[in-house]
Amino acid sequence: MTEPSELVGVVERRLDFLERLTAGPLRKHELVDALGHSRSTVNRAIDELEAAGLVAGETDGYRTTLSGRLLAGEYREFLTVADDLAAAGDVLDPLGADVDVDPAILREAETYRAAAPDPYRPLEVLDEALADADAVAAALPGFPYPRVAERLRRAAAGGGTVDLALADRAYRHATERFADDLGAVARRDDCRVAAVDAVDAGVVAADGTALLLTFDDDGTLRGAAASTEPEAVAWAETEVRDLVERGRDADEALAAMDRSEAKRTEGDRAEAEGSGGPAGSVDADASDRAGRDGEADGRGLSAAGGLFGRIGSGGGGRSALSAQGFHAVDEERLSGDSDPYGPLRATASFPEVDAGYVLERTTVRDGDRRSIAGLLVDGLAEGTDHALVGPPGSGKSTVCRSVAVEWYRSGRGPVTYRPGDGGDPFSATERLRERVTEGDGHHLVVVEDAVDPGAAEAFGVARELADRDDVSFLFDAREEPYDDPDGLPLSPADLRYRREVATARMPRLDAREVARFVDHVAECTGSVPAADPAALLDDVRRADDERVGELLALVHRLVRATGDGASVVGEAGERAGGAPGTEADASDASAGRDDAGPESGLETAVAEAVREVRNRPPPTADVAVLVNLLNVAGVGDVRTLAYALVDGPDGSAGSGTGTGGTDGEGADRDPSPTVDGVRRALDRLVGTALVRSRDGEYRAVHDEWSVLFLERLVEREPAPVVARRVGRAVSRVLALADDPARRSRIRRAVGGDAPTVNRIERDPGAWAAETVRAVYGVGRRYPRLAPLYGRVRYAWIDLPDACPDDLRDRPPEWVARMYVEAGDLDGATAALDAWRPVDEAGAAERQRGYGDVARRRGEYDAARDRYERAEELFAAAGDRGGLAAAIRGRAQAAHFDGDYEQAYEAGSRAYAIAAEVGDPIARAKALMDVGNALDGLDGTDAVLEHYRVAGDLFRAYDDTHGEANVRANLAVALRRRGDLDAAERTARRALDGYRTVGDEHREAISLLNLSAVAEQRGAVGEAVAHASEARAIAERIGSDMYEAFALSHLGSAAHLAGDLDRAERFLTAALDGLDRLGADTRCAMVTAILGEVAVDRGDPTEAERRIERTASLLDDHAGRKRLAELDRIRGRLALARGDAEAAAAALTDAVDAARAGGFTQVEAHALASLGAAAAERGDAPAAAERLTAALDLGHRIDCARAIVSAADRLADLLSGSATGSNLVDCEALTEALREAPPEAVPADAVADPAAYREIAERWRVDADGVAAAYPALG
């Protein structure tokens, strides 16, 4: 009997025979033909198989025995499993030996690894499997990307089945992040969700596909194996079913969360039915209407037009949607009080739009002037979602309200509207879906300020309903954040959907539109036209801050010109009767018309208002600061909240005017004003921050006016003073959440009825959380207002006890980020030093903030250390987005520090994480970082390909800032390749992009890129102008690094012009600045130029010192460009010392390194010097070859310095005037030039020195360059 091991050996060796004979009997000569073996091999195989009893001879040939057939089948199965395991090895590596995985899951599986060149493919495979699945069984240790929960909800909502087992950590995460989606799954009868102790490997069965998912230790998806074999799918389904049955049933808990939300929000459907519903539905909405802006009952204060009231203005019993700002536009909404003057001084209310008091904005379309609102209505009616984009104060909100009114009046269908000052952050996505899909007609949803985090979830709802032709969304968005998707609070899926939204932009005013406004204002106010439209438009564009929308500035001037006084400080409030719009007001029109010029621009008026309130008795300044801050924050009913400043027990502590001075210190000596004092202060603000309505109530002006007010205040008052003023006012408002006595005082002050106070009492914690977020949100949206909040160490805003614990650590984080984004690096450092995070996520963000500050200062080693700490903390906190951001920061710091290998490694890892979480903008940024690193390493065409893909991604998502970044980097790459025309075009487009989004840091970098292009061409004056402008920006924003860069460019330009003294002064100043920052690689660049200056001075000792210092600074961070530059200067020094052999060796190395890296400018310079070295050695053919190559390359890349150097040397050699020319055989040189003449020299002039002199003079920097307008040093 054959031993088992021998039997297995026979089967292994002769498997092909066994399998062939299993199909049918064959004779030996037939086996030779069938298997391609020799006859001797067939004889040996048959003998061996017969001896083992695996085949038997019969009359018609040899046939496999039963034992042979069974063993062959089992061995083939073993090989199949082995093949499957081998193919999946990389995917299986993270799993321990004890993990229970059946080989069946790998049967015929395709495997995908999260690695180059397609690191996000595993996520795509998972998403493809889940996208349209009707039945899903999944066991997950974590959520590989957020969309998984949404996919599961869709499967369940479509009537499918879902079995889901989650590891405990993933379950806890899901209840916080995806309770809405998983609650919808849990409520379905055929769906189950369970929590289990652990899930070793992810297992998914989706319809006919089975997936095995493996993860690295940090939670990153490592890889996926996908199989459509029935046994693989069956095993996956069984594995998940067993886990679900063994785990803890989570259905009830998730459904309870969902029921709690439903109970809290019941009444939504009734509200959606509008005013035509039953009496019960009207009653359900009545308490909500009581809290509106006074349109229904005349009570309260409305800001920015007061559509429905803002945070703090709602009544009791509100549904989740109404609490979060969504309301129906119906007859009742449109029936409030309207004022023809209202839209001239604040955002129009719905009744004012409906009454025709709003001028319909127009734009030119196909040669005709069309209504913007009408065009939007037409597009929305076709089922296309739209976004209306424009700068603040350009009239976006008014157009949106016009669209809503026209839609409702046309009978197309219901309208649900959320104003920019809507209310609670929007999260009731299911409620909104139900409302808009269950009503009759074509439902329009309008969301103002959709880029605000509190409204951004609406994008997700719109995306999910995009395939419905009976629901349309209109979004209003501020231009700057909308054009920079990286900063948008949108998920990757919503960012992709954003590309499908039609973008309409508010057009700039033209003379025709201004003329229409002039006539409209005259008609509304009963005054004569105020000014010549063309002159008025020129004045608006010349005199007002370009950050402010032209429309806001224009209307401001028109209102002043009517004599209404709405923008004249204090005037309206002190006029007899107080109400605007009387005949007496209109009679002043001619006198007011002179005020419409530049001297009465919006900026000037705001500055006057700031001066006025500071010169008024206390508490005017405190009330003004509070009103404007709450207006920008979107916190409504500021009149009521202003009385929170009254701190005495009966509202009488202190005097009405105070005894202190007119500044913050005076206010401190009289900290508690009286009720009458606050009332008089509010009256003084009429005509500036407040507008009085016909019913005697107030509403706030456009929030951009308030932003300008706060900016001017920050400029005029010392930072500690303004921070104390803001802290005192805001703290007293927030104290309302804790103190019933304060709330009672406010009720008495306003006459008893205070809906805002009612709302605070219903849920003090929720109101405190909303208000804290809103107040700090002002500085997060406008970082230049960071001084309002102090420096963390002396922050004066006290949070109330009612404020939720999870919010208490956020203000220091927000303030620190404000200072970083504002470019105030000292302020950012002070804020970060004082911040004491309470959890890992906060600690990680703090370290990333330190890294950002250090990187911007050029302290790259410190930056890398901080980013590495941030990475560890983000990983521990499970924050993948934060982890990617920290890794990208480290990649950038490494790149700036010259450590391109580390930059490449970090950029690649950041790309993998970005792909894993499905973030296209983060992918684009990481690709750009990888391209930058490759550019520093080798300069191959892979660099351009990385930039191309990154640019395509940025463009696809309308990321203006990101696209500008790519162009800035691409300009550098193009310049190094010698394509100066393309480099200049690209750099100018980058500059335009940065100026569009207001990034002054990178604006300076683009100017320096343009300076380098000009210098390469020999245009010293232009190079100096660009570098001087960059230096001025660097000084303004306080960037020592960019100032040092600019100084080095100025020094390099002076060196090109031959002004060695000036060059040394600028370069030494740059080196001092870089040395203070510890930027060794940048110091090396400047030191190398100083070394070349020393060579040109004839000071070889200083030159050698500089060269050695450069080498020590570069250390192991020397890329090909730096090595090539260093060897080139070494060669020039050797040549100056008369050591032609050493010069040739160094310069040959320089040429080789420059060519390998694609550094064309360095190559051209080195070739010119190498030609000179060849001449010194008497090698005429080599001299001709090198100098000709330098001339040709120099002309191709417009390199003035190389052209002049090579042409001068050739002219001198041909004329016999060059040093060492006696060593060169002139005839040999001429013969070599005739054999391979320079491209720029006619063939008949190749031996004529005058031809080369002409070329050199044409490119030589002349006296104009030397006399360029250099800025002063110091």
TrEMBL record:
Q: Which UniProt keywords apply?
A: Coiled coil
Q: Which domain of life is it from?
A: Archaea
Which parts of this chain are annotated as the region Disordered? Answer: 253-302, 569-602, 647-676
Compositionally skewed regions (Gly residues) per UniProt: 651-664
Write out the coiled-coil annotation as residue ranges.
853-880
Q: Which CDD domains match?
A: HTH_ARSR
Q: Which InterPro entries match?
A: ArsR-like_HTH (IPR011991), FilR1_middle_dom (IPR013561), HVO_A0261-like_N (IPR057527), P-loop_NTPase (IPR027417), TPR-like_helical_dom_sf (IPR011990), TPR_rpt (IPR019734), WH-like_DNA-bd_sf (IPR036388), WH_DNA-bd_sf (IPR036390)
Residue ranges annotated as compositionally biased, kind Low complexity, are: 581-590
Q: Where is the HVO-A0261-like N-terminal domain?
A: 11-80
In its keyword annotation, does this UniProt entry include Coiled coil?
A: yes
Q: Where is the composition biased (Basic and acidic residues)?
A: 258-272, 286-298, 666-676
Keyword Transmembrane helix attributed: no
Q: Which residue range or ranges hold the Methanogenesis regulatory protein FilR1 middle domain? A: 119-242
Q: What is the protein named? A: Tetratricopeptide repeat protein
Question: What species is given as this protein's source?
Answer: Halorubrum distributum
